[in-house]
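#onboarding

Welcome to the new folks! Below is a worked example of what a typical request in this channel looks like: someone posts a single protein sequence, and someone else replies with the predicted structure as tokens. Don't worry about understanding the tokens yet, we'll cover that in week two.

Example request:
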Amino acid sequence: MKRLQRLRYSKNLRDLTSEVGFSIGQLIQPLFVVEGLTRDEEIPGLGGVKRHSKDSLIKQIGTDLEMGVRQFILFQVPAKKMDSGFSYKFSDDVISQVKKKYGDSITLWVDTCLCSLTTHGHCCVLHDNGKQNLESTLLEISNLAKSYAEAGADGVSPSDMNDGRVYQIRQALDSSPVGLRHIPIMSYSTKFSSHFYGPFRNAADSAPQFGDRATYQIDVRNRTDAINSSIRCAQEGADLLMVKPGMTSIDLIQPIADKTRLQVGAYQVSGEYAALTLLNEKGLIKFDAALLETWQVFKRAGAQFIITYGARLAQSLGVTP
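Example response:
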């Protein structure tokens, strides 16, 4: 049974999925929290966006709330990397403290992937021969999602692009004895193997240590695979879909929405955002106007929501609260 009520569960979710107008409630601010960090670290190219300690992250969310931001997506960077049997204590502590502090005033999505947890930087568990172990990967990712939800996350967002992960996560959430059927899945359903992820990989310490991710992320030349990947996620139980990178996927947003009958968002990725900041530094662009233009183009293309490193700037740009 498709549970349409998941996206009605809170005012923030209803604002995120409102099909009338464009507001700050449809912008999602990425956050990075790093275990063991003693002071904030600037992320090169992202114009003031930082890697945070747990304490500074909580303060940053408070500042962002004052700027009208209510939607966040959290990326964790643990101190110790492993290859299986992952520990969730650090991220669970962060999630629980954030939700204890801010409660229903925010919606906290948590990126659900293994790349920042593994020693090798790939989004999966590997066999001894270096090949993907899909069964173990799905088990670890679904356990990760369940742990995040039990800690208080409002939604989980699988970004690994492994076959079957949305179905496995949905099963894990629905079978939890503590009642997690209401937790929505916002799937990175069409995610390309792209060269525009550089600043993010530095921030999340998630660059692959060998090879690349072309065997599980989508080839940028393949439109059919891109659309089918989103259809698969919809059939497996995703509540919201997403394309990434946003600008290089802009031709796919409306077709995916038409074929799946689900709302589709766009991730304005770190390389796209950094291009604006660097052009601005060279005096070649007016940053504020250009950033707003990109959001307007995403909305014109059919994006329901936008993940952007500049969500906290939206109020100053005149976006509706």
